[in-house]
Amino acid sequence: MPEVLYHNRRAVQIENDLVRVTMLVEGGHIAEILHKPSGVNPLWTPPWPSIEHSSYQRTLHPEYGDDAESKLLAGIMGHNLCLDLFGPPSPEEAAAGMTTHGEASTAFYSITSEKHQLLAKAELPTAQLAFQRQLRLTPGSPVVRFRETVENLSSLDRPSSWTQHVTLGPPFLEPGATQFRAPATLSSTRNGIQFNWPQLPQEDGSTEDLSIYPRDTVSNRVTTHVMDSRIENAFFLAFSPRMKVLFGYTWKQRDFPWLCIWDENCGREAIPWSSRTITRGLEFGVSPFPESRRNMIERNSVFDIPCYRWFPAKTRTSIEYSAFVDRSEGIQDAV
Length: 335
Known about the structure:
335 residues, eight-stranded antiparallel beta sheet, 5% helix, mainly beta, globular
């Protein structure tokens, strides 16, 4: 199918009678999983203008900040892939030109498509990885099926992160209203405070319920959650009571044991954030926290679960997962 423009970005779309999926050519971000009957796209569209990653230059685009995240923020949208970093580069990597979350989030994707399916490919020259993503819709179904393959082109085994950085935004995301469910068994803050999902301990001894998006301002808050290994399929669900729309992803727990939750509720003052957007990142993958590769490897494990995945030399690794969006009268019926 021909390319389209989506928020000023080159994109490819596939659709059926219930769902339209939009994938950006640069960065490969899933910018839209639109529920056509309601007109709701639960994924985050930033409030600042979006540009192609290849056109970003730090000296010409100060409105996106001045650090290793700026190139990504200039074109971020919806669900982006973190490969083979999940988090910032080290200072030395940043000085060498590496961006936050790695090459995959800013790479050029070659995309071929038909009405109900597409195939996207990208090369990551610094990581020496090749990536491929297949998307498929079935007529009459609200489910989007993903199949991803990572090929290690190097003659060396590689310790890597592989995280699906799914970010929700308004109007689907509403403070004090949007509800969440996930089969978490162990949870921790970034600084090592352990707790039982969804009750996050507070400094005053109270708890905050993470299953409801917070009313109060928060900035860059990160928690991580182990998906229940007793069930084959892990998941997260997000429900808008006002819109009566249910959204979620499901994946194999053995592929992605971690769900990292990141909240931003008008708390970041730095540009381009400027205290003007709300998001919740539901980031499922092989790593518990966004951090540099050095820190990821030195951390090694949390709750005795590894913080990264090995890609053996000259091999391919494939996984499958799904997303869906549909009408619902409540979140309990879907659990």
